[in-house]
Each structure stands twice: as structure tokens, then as C-alpha cells.
Design brief:
This protein has 175 residues and is of the alpha/beta class. Helix content is 29%, strand content 23%. The protein contains 3 helices and 10 strands.
Length: 175
């Protein structure tokens, strides 16, 4: 009976481990991007500060994680952190060419920003593009998932079944 109890307990831990990433790392950014020119970008409250950065060619930009959550910098076509930045962690990249360099935190969907290098600006916006719709986007957090209570209830049920199986196996051996 003991192998069954261990299997149920292992299943409960596996479900718990797999359910955690579905919550987007617990990180919800409710703010509009801030524009700036300082090469020191703070990461705080699931936001890159500045979210729109303008620097000159040759500037080394440093990202410092001041958040309680771990983050990564993943440049689209230009760079990536070698490991996760925990609180106080720093990543730096020197921009040697004029261009537009978007990046994101792959751990937290929707957490993204852009670096404009040189005198370049955003392309002229066209109707129905994301640039023309950013001000009309919802400003509040996404609605909470309805799966949360059911997931918690299922985990509690699995844990109770695991404990019951373990206890039954222990009593059977003791008899």
C-alpha cells in the first residue's frame, strides 16, 4: 500500500509544480511604459523603468532587478541574460549600432520594453497597428482565472488522499 501513497503524494507535488508557471510568475504590470534616457534601467513591480529608452550609439545599458520576482532580459535578435536575475542582479549590454531593440522578460508574459539607439524614432504608425491602439488598451489587470479555486480544491483533495493512503498503508503494516 505504501507505493500507492507515495505515488499519490508525488502526483500532488507534480500538479503543484506545473500549476505555478500558469500564474505568470505572480507578476502583474498595471502601468504604462515610462520613457527615459538614463542607461540604468530598474526592474521593479514587473516593469522595466524606462520601458521606452533612448540612448546614443556606444551606450552600455544596465538592467538592475530591484523587484522581489526573478527576471530575465531577452533581446529580440540582440542579447539575452545568461541566467535569471534575482533581486540585486545586473545585466549589461553595449549598443554599437543605430536601431530599435525590443526586449522582454520571458518569465512574465507581457513584460516588455524597447531601446531606441541613435536619432531613430518609432516608425510612423498606421491604422489598426499596436502603436495606434496602445492608448485604447484596457488599463486594469487581466481578469482572474476561474480555475484557481478548482486547482486549489483538487490539490487539497490529492493531498488528503495521499495522507489517507499513507496512513492506511502504515496501519496495514502495523497489524
Amino acid at each position: 500500500m505504501r507505493p500507492v501513497a507515495l505515488a499519490v503524494l508525488a502526483l500532488a507535488f507534480a500538479i503543484l509544480a506545473l500549476a505555478t508557471p500558469a500564474q505568470a510568475g505572480g507578476c502583474i504590470n498595471e502601468s504604462k511604459p515610462i520613457e527615459g534616457t538614463s542607461p540604468d534601467v530598474r526592474i521593479d513591480k514587473c516593469q522595466f523603468m524606462a520601458g521606452v529608452l533612448r540612448v546614443t550609439v556606444g551606450t552600455t545599458v544596465r538592467w538592475t532587478n530591484d523587484d522581489v520576482f526573478p527576471h530575465e532580459i531577452s533581446g529580440i535578435g540582440w542579447g539575452r541574460t545568461q541566467s535569471t536575475l534575482t533581486t540585486g542582479g545586473v545585466y549589461a549590454h553595449t549598443f554599437t549600432e543605430v536601431g530599435i531593440f525590443p526586449y522582454t522578460c520571458p518569465l512574465h508574459p507581457g513584460m516588455s520594453a524597447v531601446v531606441f539607439v541613435g536619432g531613430i524614432s518609432a516608425p510612423a504608425s498606421q491604422q489598426n497597428t499596436i502603436a495606434t491602439r496602445i492608448d485604447t488598451a484596457p488599463q486594469g489587470p487581466a481578469p482572474k482565472s476561474q480555475d484557481g479555486p478548482w486547482s486549489a480544491l483538487a490539490l487539497v483533495g490529492i493531498a488528503v488522499a495521499g495522507v489517507a493512503g499513507f496512513t492506511a498503508g502504515h496501519r496495514t503494516r502495523a497489524s
